UniProtKB/TrEMBL annotation:
It comes from Jannaschia seosinensis. This is Putative MscS family protein.1. Residues 121-148 form a coiled coil. The keyword Repeat does not apply. The keyword Transmembrane applies.
C-alpha cells in the first residue's frame, strides 16, 4: 500500500469524523461566518497558500455548510403545515371583490407567519450557496497546487554530487536509530524498567515466535491435506482461501507483537517510533504481495489461475510480483524515514530514483510476460478466452510503458511525476488481482452452498455479486490515483442530497424507502394472490377463465396500490411533477398509443371475458387455444404447438371466432359419395343410423343427412352431426368415416372412385414408325 493511499484513507476517515457530527451542532453567529469567508477569500487569492492550509479552511466551510443545510431542513414541516392551512382557506377573492373580514385576517396572519418562518430559510439558502461556491474555489486552488507539485522539477539524481549527501543522511538516520534502540539497555536504571515487565515481554516473544515461524508450518500441513480435493470440491477451494488468509495475517500479528514488545522495552525517539510503526506495515505489504501472487498464479497443478499465464511461467511471474511488493515496502519505509529527518527529506529524490528504476525494470519484465502470454492465449485458446487474453495484452503494454516512463521522468528530475505513475499502477494491478480472487471466491462459495457443481459458475447471483465488487472498487481506484478523500466525500454527499425534478427532490433515501415499501407491498399482493388461488377460488363455481381474471385483477390493483403507498411513504410530492408530466404527455401519448390501446383492450378482455383461457378461437387466420391473457397481448397455441402472440387490440376491434365461448358443443360435417344407381333413400337411412349411433352425437337437435346432388362420379351426401365437445371434432370425424365405410360394405353399397373415358382423335399418330414401313 503506497503512502499516498494510506494518507488518503486516513484523510477520508478524518473527514467523516469531522462532518458526521455537524448536524447536531448549534448554528454559529453571522460574524463567525463572515470571518471564515474573509479567510477563505484571502487564502484563495494568496500565492503562497499551502495545500494543508487550504484543506483546513475547506473543513471549516464544510462544517458551516452542514449547519446551514440543517437550518433549512429544520423548518420544512412547519412551512408545509402553514401552507396547508392557507390552502384550506377559501380561494382569494378576485380583483375588485371582497371576502369576509375574519377569513381575510386569518389569511394575513398565516402569510405573516409564513414570511417570518421563511426569512431565515432564505438567508440560510443564500449562505449555503456561498459556502458551496467557496468550497468549489478552494478545490480548484488545491488541484492547481497539486498539479504544480506533480510537475515540479528537482535536482536530477544522475548528478554524482547528489549521492554523497543522500548516503550520509541515510547513515545518520541509522546511527540515530541504533542509539535509540540501545538506550534501554545502556544503564542499569533503563534495564530495570523493562526487566520489571519480563512476563509480558516473554509472552509477546512467545507469540511472535509461534506466529512468525510455526504458524506457517502448521497451516501448510493443513493446506496440503485440503488441496488434494481442490479441483473437484468447491468447499475445499473456499477452505484453501481461508487458510491462505490465515497464513498471511498471522505473521503480521507476530510483527505487531514485536512492535508492542519494543514499546514495552522503552525504545523511543523519532526514528525508533517510525521504525516500530513501519515494521508491521512493511511486513503486511510484502505478505500481501506474496498472497496475491500465490492466489492469482497458484503453484498447484490443475488449479485455476486468475491471470492467463501458463504453468511453466507462473513461477517467474510470482517472483516478479513479490519483488515489486518488496520495492513498494521500501518506498513506504523511505517516506516514513524522511518524515523524521530534514536531510533525508531534502535528498529523497536519490533513493526514489533508485526504487523507481528497480520497480520500472520489474514492471517492464512483468509487462513483457503478460504480453507474450496474451499472444499465446489468443493463438491457442477458444473464442471465449480471447477477450481476457486481449485484456492481458493491454495490461502488459501499460506495464511496459509505465516501466519505461516512470524511471525516465525521475532521471530528468520529475520524481513526483514518476512516482505518481509507477506506484499507483502497481497498486491498481494488486487491486485488480484482489477483485478477481474475490470473484472466484464468490463463485466457489455459491457452488459450495447450493451444491450446483454443473451450472454454479454460470449462475446469475454470483455474477451480480462479482459485478457489485467491481463497481465498489471504483472509489478505491480513484483514491489510488490521487483522488482526495474529501473530494470523494463531497461527491457522495451531493449524491445523497439528490436532485430536483419538477420541484420535487429525489434522493437515494427516497428511492430506497420507495423500493423497500414497494417490495413489501408486492410480496403482500403475491401472498393474497396465492391465498385466493389455493384456498378461496377453488371453493367457488368460477371456471378457469374467471379465476384467472380475478387473480389478474388482484395483481394489477394490488401493485398499483403498493406503488402509491410507496410513493407516499417516500415523501415524494407528485404535484410538482404535474407540469412536467403534462408537457410530456402529448409526445408520450403518440409514442405509446398502441401500447395504451392494447392495455385497455386487455382490461376489457379480463372484465368482459369474450375469450377465456382454454378457448378455441380463430383470429386473423390464426386458430388454436388461448393459453395466456396479459394486459398487452394474448398468447394462442396453435394445433402445431406454436405460440402466436396476438395484440389485445386485434381481439377487441377485429372479428374473432370462439368455438367454445358459451358451451363446448360443435358441429361435424362428413361428406359421402355412393355409386350411381344406389337407392338414395336407403343411403340416407343408413347414414342417419350411423350418425345417431355415435356416443358423442347430440340427438336434440338430431343429426341431419342431406342429398347434396349429382357429382361427376357419385351421388353426394352430407352428414351434419352436433357433438358434445368440439375439441373431439377430428376424432369424431374419423370415427364416423370408419363407421360409414363398414356399414356400406355390409350393405353392399359401393363407394365409387373417379373414372374417365379417354377418346383419341387421331390414334394413327401413336403407331410405331417401323410398322408403317
Amino acid at each position: 500500500m503506497t503512502p499516498r493511499l494510506m494518507r488518503a484513507l486516513a484523510g477520508l476517515l478524518l473527514t467523516l469524523l469531522l462532518v458526521l457530527p455537524v448536524a447536531a451542532q448549534e448554528p454559529r453567529s453571522a460574524l463567525g461566518w463572515g470571518e471564515i469567508v474573509e479567510s477563505a477569500e484571502t487564502a484563495i487569492a494568496a500565492e503562497d497558500a499551502t495545500i494543508e492550509a487550504l484543506d483546513a479552511l475547506r473543513e471549516q466551510l464544510v462544517t458551516w455548510r452542514a449547519t446551514f443545510e440543517a437550518e433549512m431542513a429544520k423548518t420544512g414541516p412547519r412551512v408545509a403545515a402553514l401552507r396547508a392551512q392557507i390552502d384550506a382557506l377559501e380561494p382569494p377573492p378576485a380583483e375588485g371583490e371582497s371576502e369576509p373580514q375574519a377569513i381575510a385576517d386569518q389569511r394575513e396572519a398565516l402569510n405573516a407567519q409564513l414570511e417570518e418562518l421563511l426569512a431565515p430559510v432564505r438567508e440560510a439558502e443564500t449562505v449555503f450557496a456561498e459556502a458551496n461556491a467557496l468550497i468549489a474555489e478552494l478545490d480548484e486552488r488545491v488541484e492547481a497546487e497539486r498539479a504544480a507539485r506533480l510537475f515540479s522539477k528537482s535536482v536530477t539524481p544522475l548528478d554524482p554530487r547528489a549521492w554523497p549527501p543522500a548516503v550520509a543522511a541515510f547513515g545518520s538516520w541509522l546511527r540515530d536509530l541504533g542509539m535509540q534502540v540501545a538506550a534501554p539497555f545502556a544503564t542499569p536504571e533503563a534495564r530495570a524498567v523493562w526487566q520489571a515487565r519480563g512476563l509480558e515481554l516473554g509472552l509477546l516473544a512467545l507469540i511472535a515466535i509461534v506466529l512468525l515461524w510455526r504458524s506457517n508450518v502448521w497451516l501448510g500441513h493443513l493446506r496440503a491435506r485440503v488441496a488434494r480435493r481442490e479441483v473437484e470440491n468447491a468447499v475445499a477451494r473456499v477452505a484453501l482461501l481461508a487458510i491462505s488468509l490465515a497464513q498471511m495475517l498471522l505473521p503480521v500479528a507476530g510483527l505487531v507483537a514485536i512492535s508492542r514488545a519494543a514499546i514495552l522495552i522503552g525504545i523511543s525517539g523519532p526514528e525508533a517510533t517510525v521504525a516500530i510503526g513501519l515494521l508491521p506495515v512493511l511486513g503486511f505489504t510484502v505478505l500481501v504481495a506474496r498472497w496475491l501472487a500465490l492466489q492469482a498464479l497458484p503453484k498447484r497443478e490443475g488449479a485455476n489461475a486468475f491471470l492467463p499465464i501458463s504453468p511453466a511461467r507462473r513461477g517467474r511471474a510470482r517472483r516478479l510480483v513479490l519483488l515489486l511488493g518488496g520495492l513498494i515496502a521500501l518506498g513506504i519505509a523511505w517516506r516514513g524515514m524522511a518524515e523524521t529527518s530534514v536531510a533525508m527529506a531534502e535528498t529523497i529524490f536519490v533513493p526514489r530514483f533508485v526504487l523507481l528504476t528497480l520497480a520500472g525494470i520489474v514492471m517492464f519484465q512483468l509487462g513483457r510476460l503478460f504480453l507474450s502470454e496474451g499472444r499465446i492465449t489468443i493463438e491457442e485458446a477458444e473464442e471465449v478466452h480471447t477477450f481476457w487474453a486481449q485484456i492481458t495484452r493491454l495490461v502488459g503494454r501499460a506495464l511496459i510503458v509505465v516501466g519505461v516512463l516512470a524511471p525516465l521522468a525521475a532521471a530528468l528530475g520529475y520524481g513526483n511525476l514518476g512516482a505518481a505513475l509507477l506506484w499507483p499502477t502497481a497498486v491498481s494491478l494488486a487491486l485488480i488481482a484482489l477483485i478477481g480472487i474475490l470473484q472466484g471466491f464468490v463463485f466457489d462459495f455459491y457452488v459450495a452452498v447450493t451444491r450446483r457443481t454443473d451450472t454454479g459458475h454460470d449462475a446469475l447471483v454470483p455474477t451480480l455479486v462479482g459485478f457489485a465488487l467491481a463497481l465498489a472498487s471504483v472509489p478505491l481506484f480513484g483514491l489510488i490515483w490521487g483522488l482526495r478523500p474529501i473530494t470523494l466525500l463531497e461527491w457522495w454527499q451531493t449524491f445523497l442530497r439528490g436532485f430536483d425534478l419538477g420541484g420535487t427532490r429525489i434522493s437515494p433515501a427516497n428511492f430506497l424507502t420507495f423500493a423497500i415499501v414497494f417490495l413489501i407491498g408486492f410480496f403482500f399482493v403475491r401472498l393474497i394472490r396465492g391465498v385466493l388461488r389455493a384456498s378461496v377460488l377453488p371453493k367457488t363455481k368460477l371456471d378457469t377463465g374467471g379465476t384467472n381474471a380475478i387473480l389478474s385483477g388482484t395483481s394489477y390493483v394490488g401493485i398499483t396500490l403498493a406503488a402509491l403507498i410507496a410513493i407516499t411513504a417516500a415523501g415524494i410530492d407528485l404535484t410538482g411533477l404535474a407540469v412536467v408530466a403534462g408537457a410530456l404527455s402529448l409526445g408520450i401519448g403518440f409514442g405509446l398509443q398502441t401500447i395504451v390501446q392494447n392495455f385497455v383492450s386487455g382490461i376489457i378482455l379480463l372484465i368482459g371475458r369474450p375469450i377465456k383461457l382454454g378457448d378455441w378461437i380463430n383470429v386473423n387466420g390464426t386458430e388454436g387455444f388461448v393459453r395466456e391473457i396479459s394486459v398487452r397481448s394474448t398468447r394462442v397455441e396453435t394445433f402445431d404447438r406454436q405460440d402466436v402472440i396476438v395484440p389485445n387490440a386485434d381481439l377487441i376491434s377485429g372479428v374473432v371466432t370462439n368455438y367454445t365461448l358459451d358451451n363446448s358443443a360443435g358441429r361435424v360435417l362428413v361428406t359421402v359419395g355412393v355409386a350411381y344407381g344406389t337407392d338414395t333413400r336407403r343411403v340416407e337411412t343408413i347414414l342417419q343410423e350411423v350418425a345417431e349411433a355415435h356416443p358423442m352425437a347430440i340427438l336434440s337437435p338430431p343429426p341431419l343427412v342431406t342429398f347434396d346432388g349429382f357429382g361427376a362420379s357419385s351421388l353426394d351426401f352430407t352428414v351434419r352431426v352436433v357433438i358434445r365437445d368440439i375439441l373431439f371434432k377430428v376424432i369424431v370425424h374419423s370415427e364416423l368415416n370408419h363407421a360409414v365405410a363398414e356399414r356400406f360394405a355390409a350393405e353392399g353399397i359401393e363407394i365409387p372412385f373417379a373414372q374417365r373415358d379417354l377418346w383419341l382423335r387421331n390414334p394413327e399418330v401413336l403407331q410405331p414408325r417401323g410398322e408403317g414401313a
